[in-house]
Fold this protein.
Amino acid sequence: MSQATLDDDDLFDEAAAEMREDVETSLAAAKSSLPAPDDVWEAEADNTLGVLNGLKGALDAGDAEEDLRDAKKWFAIGRKADAFEDAEDLEAEIEALETTLSRIADAHEQVGKLTATVPELRGALEDAESGDGTE
């Protein structure tokens, strides 16, 4: 045989490196899909509802959840196959990203509730001010 052949250990090491790279690539993609901090913090609107609508839109995590799912999938396969010599860094990064996405989802839900509540509250305050609906 004129071609050099790879033994199973070499193939496994190569596959493990590729799997780690897949996890890292998916994590990087998930992070790049997160909202920009300034988009969540800064607002340009004429009123509270405009601010809330802007914040609700800014809290869109795009494909981050799907990318995180891919990272977790490849990580789980690699861990089960004992393919990673050092998996703690990947695991910590996955957990941190899960926490961030959970916080974004919670904030999005809370802002959504406020977006519905603030106009109702304004209407009730206008009614109270004008004396309508008090009897």
